[in-house]
Amino acid sequence: QVHLVESGGGTVQPGASLRLSCAVSGRTTTTSVWGWFRQAPGKERTFVGAINWRTDDTLIADSVKGRFIVSTDDAKHTMYLQMNNLEPGDPAVYHCGARPNLRDPLSSQVEEYTDWGQGTPVTVSS
Question: Is 126 a residue whose pLDDT tops 80?
Fold first, then answer.
């Protein structure tokens, strides 16, 4: 089992920046790919970005490319989502998840992630 805990959400103005953290523990040695997804009220969970923490390869959704950056601190077993220039379409509960197997590749598909955190909410208001 992989345990993930998100933090860093809050309420910010449009155009502001925010950094989310995802602390990962448990069977991290059997995983390679961690990802960020977001879910707005009444909508399905959608892909934001993912990273292979062993190689630092990343996959970023077109909707946030150029504004959001996914990274890891391997010593701290933590994944980050740096969100810049937040827009009205960005508010959601942000979840981090993990693919279960060592050889699982980067993926944007929510169903291919098996372990999830509880989420941290991000709101944008003026």
Answer: no
